[in-house]
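hi! just following up on the protien thing from before. the input was this:
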Amino acid sequence: MTRPAPESRAFAKSVRGDFELVISPLFRVETAASLPQLPGKFGVIFTSANGVRAWMTLGGPVSAPCFAVGEATGREARAAGFTPEIAKGNADDLVAMIARTRPGIPLVHARGHHARGRVAERLSSAGIETHEAEIYDQHALPMSGEAQKVLNSDQPVIAPLFSPRSAALFSKQGKVHAPLAVVAMSEAVAGQIGPIAPRHVVIANHPCAESMRSAVERLLDADRWVERCGDAQ
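and the predicted 3d structure came back as:
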């Protein structure tokens, strides 16, 4: 697991099956020093749970309307006191949902330094005034020694990758020796896998944690991709 440790443990706890968990976060989240200047009255857009947490850490108001890219982000927003409208897990659906809603006040996209989807740009082009608030960054971390050992062993490994940035950082490890299956949250994530040469790539049916969990469980239940290679880690 390459997400921060709390998220990695929570996801692994939800997965049914026998496996050994190795956690090696590929980035750490650093919240900005302060919020930028904001409009007088506005709604807020969140495209990650990290964005919600950074917003609340910086004292951002619980504004309405609130829009979240997917269920995990929506849960974080609800826990913070928002009443979010939730898209289906990707920027395209989020932009389309907001465009249909046509909120009558400006919006603020609370985002990280590394962001995809051009959410604010596309909404502004559609006539919906949308500002960007870059409120956190994700600083790359090296792969841990334990993770490197696992990736270069003879035992099969399943690597769930939840974002294009995670996939890009993971791909910098180069080709690995272990029989490797990657579970990608979307086509965009799979497109960043690069030179690691996994034996198997599975793309989740939907860009959400539930589909990721189901895809991992299917790999754990089916050993065809790791014949004679032992149990999955």
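The beta strands are 27-31, 43-46, 66-68, 84-86, 107-112, 130-140, 157-161, 180-184, 200-203.
The longest helix spans residues 209-221.
cheers
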